[in-house]
Amino acid sequence: MTESIISLKNINVTFRQKNKTIQAVQNVSLEVEPGDIYGVVGYSGAGKSTLVRTVNLLQVPTSGQVVVQNSTFFDGQDNQNHAKIINSNQLRQKRRKIGMIFQHFNLLNERTVAENVAFALEHAKLSDTQKADKVDELLKLVELSDRSQQYPSQLSGGQKQRVAIARALANDPEILISDEATSALDPKTTNQILGLLKKLNQEYGLTILLITHEMQAVKEIANKVAVMQNGQIIERGSLLDIFANPQEQLTKEFIETATNLDQAIATVSQQALVQNLQANQIFARLTYTGSNTNEPLIAGLYRQYQIIANILYGDIEILQGTEVGSLLVILTGEQDKLTAGVAQLAQAGVNVEILKGSHAL
Ligand SMILES: Nc1ncnc2c1ncn2[C@@H]1O[C@H](COP(=O)(O)OP(=O)(O)OP(=O)(O)O)[C@@H](O)[C@H]1O
Asked: Which of 29, 68, 117, 251 would be a feasible disulfide site paired with 246, CB 3.0-4.6 Å?
């Protein structure tokens, strides 16, 4: 196994207010390897921002261990009083190697695009000419060279985020934390920004921690996913595993939204065939990856078990270069054969979720 570039172990973050205690992050461990685009997905309030802010100690954990690029930033088993924390000088230097971008861009409005990027180089040991060259290079990378003398108010949301990305990359970080960076953008601009992040990952080896409430964004570029709920990671895995074989209800919800399957299920469920499902029928969702394809699956069911499959909806997504297929089907057959057929599908690596008619099994 590759050594982690970010290692969070048993992280707890507790906020104490006058008369209440909020456990924003509860015993979360997360290992990010170099070159990962690790998506952390969850609804608002799940604790995502609090968790990722512990990576650069913008949020000091209540307990746990934070190791980034082999430096221990924080190590405290029980509470902050006895914890070891990296000294502030070192932390300041290390933080420059961890870029961060946010939903609302956080640009300085009274400074030009070039000045915003140059701001991140204030402490860099570079001559003025070198700094100017670096700013030019970064603006070229994010395709904003022609906007260098404009002010943030003259830019679109996507352009502002690209300035923020250029600024985040100024000190050549190996890690970029993206906290809801596309949440304020329209779908087309979102895809452009995600495309840029993917390019930075592929061409420069940038490791990205992608915090979002949109599984769609994770689907586009991440190779790994963790799902957060109530301060905990409830499910994690490779993008492919999570999409092909989600275990938790919340994960399923996120995936259905990202693949538009939620709408398909709602629409198809209204059809008379599903509404009037017969005693010898089940309505199911089949999910399969790569090596399986729809025709052999369906043909096999008929050949071996005389099960007739009526496909009401089908979709194929390409994730990380591998096909993930989803079918909404009505399967008709004798009870024991339906049971055997469904078991056979599961054995062949097809995820079968009975949406209606489980009594037929
Ligand atoms: N500084 C703070 N003081 C007190 N409570 C906080 C603080 N920061 C966050 N919280 C609480 O911790 C919980 C997790 O918040 P967090 O912002 O990490 O969630 P999130 O998943 O990132 O959601 P969002 O996308 O809405 O920011 C919430 O209940 C929030 O109100």
From this structure: 251
